[in-house]
Amino acid sequence: MAAPDGLPPLREVIATHGIAARKALGQNFLLDLNLTAKIARAAGDLGAADVLEVGPGPGGLTRGLLAEGARRVLAIEKDPRCLPALAEIAAAYPDRLEVMNADALDVDARAHLTPPIRVVANLPYNVGTELLVRWLTPPDWPPYWQSLTLMFQKEVAERIVALPGQKAYGRLALLAQWRTDARIVMTLPPEAFTPAPKVRSAVVHLTALPAPRFPADPATLNRIVAAGFNQRRKMLRSSLKGIAPGIEARLEAVGIAPTARAEEIGLEAYCRLARALDGG
User: Fold this and answer.
1) What is the C-alpha separation between 49 and 3, in angstroms, rounded?
2) Tens-place pLDDT, residues 130-153
3) Which domains does the chain have, with CATH numbers?
């Protein structure tokens, strides 16, 4: 039975084109078109936006994005086996889908997209975090994208939205929450995917703030947070001692207990410390 968009069911597409998921490419295909449509809707109003999708595979989410009215979709797919299936979708949605056979880590998508831009992707497990960090750390802010709606392993999603004192709280939470509003909007069980991964998955929606939540130099803030969490069980007076001379007094001056550990300190306090170290 054909799907509402007139294209074959995804299981049939995979069988026709011989697209067995490959672990080396971090592939786990989401075949339920109701779920892919739900993810597309979680990204917000797509009617006036170009959408960047990374790792479309056989095109389940791609179809959801187009069916939900995306003005245009740029799908970057590394696996050439998926290209014929994606070409069928492009034919069903004339002039609305561009497919690039490339590694997303090597592509500057801005040259192929017209603002406003939203990023929506079921990211390959092996590059998901690296891509997120790149999107969160451009040379200039605000970024070229309005929002990111991304599927990760649930453990990674929890790291993005974690709060001080929680086990998952760390550099990724601070990086995401400094410049975006981040929330988990969906969780999915392993059996939703083919092949079923060993872990649950979750979709995180991140909306870009017009400016960082608190002022701080990005390089200084990153240096502090990296040092603190690289030795997260140590007190800050020890883990940050290489950051600047007299670090204990500097911590006290901005209201941070030198005996605290990195996971106990909130974003605003880290930004205060960064400004102090820069003389602000």
Assistant:
1) 24
2) 999 999 999 999 999 999 999 999
3) 10-208 (3.40.50.150), 218-277 (1.10.8.100)
